[in-house]
Amino acid sequence: MLTELTLLQFRSHARAVLPLDGRPVALYGPNGAGKTNILEALSLLSPGRGLRRAGAEELARGPGELGWKIRAGLQLDGQMHDIETSAQPGQGREVRLDGKAVPQLMLGRMLRVVWLVPAMDRLWIEAPEGRRRFLDRMVMAFLPGHAEAVLAYEKAMRERNRLLKDMVRDAAWYRTLEAQMAEAGAEIAQNRRQALARLAEAQADAATSFPVADLSLSAEGPEDLAAALAAGRGRDMAAGRTLEGPHRTDLEAVFAAKGMAAARCSTGEQKALLISLILANARALKAEGVAMVVLLDEVAAHLDASRRAALYDEICGLGVQAFMTGTGAELFDTLGARGQYWEITETDGTSVLTERPPP
Asked: Domain holding 258: CATH number?
């Protein structure tokens, strides 16, 4: 579990220190006070660009010579570890584990981070790209190496797309890239199917107040991707991009109890399905004994009192270290003494954190 979180010159926080004891954390205060900034900092304890997909230069508190830093204490298998990620002006993000520089991908092997933010509310009705990102985050929570396969595939595809746009016709230029795409693509597809199987198992017979979602993949691409890419070079050249492969896969969900596609469900049902999947992800990870945190931004505002109580009961029952935001303490009244509470206010553009007793 995380034992402490420190933010320095990060977004609206000049300096913030949160001692943590493993209980769920409720962060409340007015809009714009800096609640989501704390969740974003936590999301950067995993590989990638975090829940807002921001570049390192966007995360600094303001222009100037100061960079930003996030530090967290992690208790894992009886040992304490220090995780630090930071960036100086004009430089990319760096990661240090116990004082030693490590690649970002190492974060995924130490701590799994899953999140749900309001921007995902339209997940089931937006373009497939958002659903693929949602899917791959869940996959990486189970299989941290999935990130490396995705990076390898995307790098080879970018180089192939460059050849296509330049109208290069020599097959020799394509073969190596297409072989790399096929190898990484096969791993990506296998990882995604394995993750869906784990989610299905975690949802089966689970004691939950949230609806079960039957998940499936569409447009997975041909089994022999290398041959398909070779055969499709002319068509891809006309389009200026690669038209087949796991980068075209879509995630489909069905509200199991109703047999209704998520895209046709009500807004409330779509939100409940998302929460259900996040809980299933956490349930499966908990069963595997891995360290994780769950980030739920403004989740309480979209639930009625009974559903809020059910959500807090499930989180506490799982023993998950969750961080939740809301505009008022009353949204967490049924969590009670089972949680930690921080009120966040804003003064002259700077966020101020104050620990509070349970509502």
From this structure: 1.20.1050.90
